[in-house]
Here is the input.
Amino acid sequence: MNDRSAAPGGLALIESLVNTLDVESGADSLDTPEGRARFGLPERPAAAADADDALAHARELRESLRATLLAHAGHPPHREVTPLGRLLAAAPLLVTVDEHDGSAALAPRDPAAAPLLSRTAAAVAEALIAGTWTRLKACEAATCHWAYYDRSPAGRGRWCSMQVCGAREKMRRYRAK
Here is the structure.
């Protein structure tokens, strides 16, 4: 949907997850094996119940992220969702320090449990530290809500694409006059 370059660092994971659903058409790339594989979600045939649970949790996470990104852009949630903070609380992180060079990183306490949730929590924490978290937003167009990274100097971007969603909104306003 958007013509912007990907979000920096771990925010690219979040942007990519939110953008697995095309709100306008209803197409969900998490319905495909390739789409699930991108996020480390299990294939359905092996353990259907576990795969269905993992997929349901991924979709719940995606929609909580979308609501948060809409809030970053100053918009109300698109629907009622589980608060993102409640979901991320289930993925506690540890600060790890390399013995050789002293570099530090965030790592999930239990990497095997909910890897997508843990990777998302680490990405949010790193973006908070970098000061980039609130620059990841969702398009205000009700038929879009695509995630994008706002690189505008003032951080006031409203649409994923000025050529598509922005132009549509400006045309609606023009016609309304």
